[in-house]
Amino acid sequence: AKTYDVQLCFNVQESDPLWRRRAGVIVQDVLVGAGGSITALREPERLRIMAIGDSITAGIVALGHSTLPNTPASTTAVLASEWSYLHVACDLLGAIPLHNGYGGTGITVPGEGGMPVAIENVSGTMLHRPGKHFYPGNPQVIVINHGTNDDGAQYRNPPAKPTAAVFQAEYRRLCLYLLATYPAAMLVCMR
Predict the structure, then answer these.
(1) What is the model's pTM?
(2) What is the pLDDT along the chain (191 residues), one digit of tens a residue?
(3) 42, 104, 153, 183: which has the fewest C-beta neighbours closer than 10 Å?
(4) CB 51 within 8 A of CB 99
(5) H helices of 102-163, where?
(6) 42: which residues sit within 8 A by CB, 6+ positions away?
(7) In this structure, are residues 185 and 142 in contact, taking their beta carbons and an 8 Å threshold?
(8) CA torsion sign, 129 to 108 to 112 to 148?
(9) Which residues lie closer than 8 Å to 23 by C-beta, 6 or more apart?
């Protein structure tokens, strides 16, 4: 019998319209010929860590900008997502990474590709994604790493930096939503 490890890689750019136009890639099923079988690479009893954040969480330019001619910088970021802090930490801990990082997003500001603010993003992508059965079980640890783009929103056109009170209220709302959705999870909040 032959054994094959299969890894699918897609060139999805940070600025692609991933949210509004339902662009992106979801594997719904894998078909195997007669006598074949599928063995999961990750076991469900391992620690599951979900990270929610912006381009830092996504691993944007984790390995620097591309040096290939005529290549957008975000291409390197897509290829370097395995070097994001989530994946590096999960490799060291032997944990399963559950990724929810999108460039430009914030607690109060939308991101690249039409991504909505954090709570809309989380409630729309993590709970109802068709591929969620590939990662059995809920996260035991949830890391929120948001705030950089909220601070930088003063440089957007038009400026959109939230007040401290608005930012804190929306951050709290996200935390309460996650605690209600995943009551057994430990929440780690960064800014």
Answers:
(1) 0.71
(2) 677 666 666 666 666 665 555 555 666 777 888 888 776 655 557 898 999 998 888 887 666 655 445 555 544 444 466 778 898 999 999 998 888 888 888 999 888 777 888 888 887 765 444 434 344 568 899 999 998 888 888 777 777 888 999 999 999 999 999 998 889 999 999 87
(3) 183
(4) yes
(5) 118-125, 148-152
(6) 96, 135
(7) yes
(8) negative
(9) 12, 16, 17, 113
